[in-house]
Fold these 3 entries.
Entry 1:
Amino acid sequence: MKLIILNLIVLKITLMRELNQKIFNYLITLKKGETTTYKFLAEKFNSHPRAVGKILASNKDKNVPCFKVIRSDGELGGYNGLLGGSKEGLIKNN
């Protein structure tokens, strides 16, 4: 039983890493001034918007433009401040 649980935990971690990589790779392809939404990413990668938000919040790679992800209602949503400045300013200039 313990081995099954351990295997499930390893599988979950592997799937989360794959999801992180897919989301980050997609964000890198966005052009200057382009944005996407948490909902779009969740639907594209068979996840949930909150899971996408958690993944983005944990990002430490300055090359991944997580600030380009906004809420589906047009509001900016969260931003961990990794690059400094405001999320709105970063979207306009990157």
Entry 2:
Amino acid sequence: MADRMLVDISEVATKVGFRAPVAMTKNAWADCVWWPQTTANKMVSIQTEEGRLCDVLYAAMLAAKLSEGMSRTVFDVYRVQATGKRVKPRRTTLVMQIGPGDIKEPVITISMPEEI
């Protein structure tokens, strides 16, 4: 995470049930989690970054359980876009990959498909 391209979400991920450190790429965060106050003030729907992050992590946990030990899995989440006027959730695809960290410990990264 030293390159600042990743957001450490391990603290919340642990509460959802992940046992390894979890990070999200900045692009995935911006698309699925980021929720600026200016958008919150304009929208009728109630959204928070914490709630949106939990949505991503629950979907990722379900995908992990269904992937039967694979190191990479693709999953979808529905989210309201943070920009624009639409309040209807739209589907987006994310990729979760587990691999060795800096000291060869298992780490999980959630990203957009084009980032892999």
Entry 3:
Amino acid sequence: MRTAFTVTPASVAASIRGARHAAARATLYLLVLILIPETARGRNNDIPRDGITAAIPAGWILLPPDPSRSGKQLVAPDGEGWVVVDATPADGDVAARMNAYASRDGERITYHRRGGSWIVVSGFRGGDRIFYRKAMLACSNTRWHEIEFEYPAAQKWAYDRFVTQASHRLGAHRNEGCASRR
């Protein structure tokens, strides 16, 4: 019995996207395997337990700064999940920033909510990984406070509480890290 395959531009593009995501995940895992032992040996890895960082479970590892992205990146003890916490200037058009934040290549969005000063987007990357992003204006609308998670879909139940707590803390601590006003 012979099976016929039809190759379309869309199927080729999907295969290429899948290969890119697999390569990106493999690179991240390799970096995690290399950096985690070095980070743990090389410096005190205590994470402050106030504000949003209070929601981070024990055992998560703060990675060294990554020149390709801003913010603090932490990785799960098993190396499978990660979170980035960031604060950036709120320059430019708020709506344009939210639009750019909402959609990225290779993502299938399953949840998208937006208010005048915040946005939440969640869904799947590569079919087997969940992402969750939340950004909100903070510090009297002068800064964006952001959090982004990625973790295996198979571990969703294990991450639900962490993601929920961190998301709520992002809003509760919207004036944390702001320059003092005189």
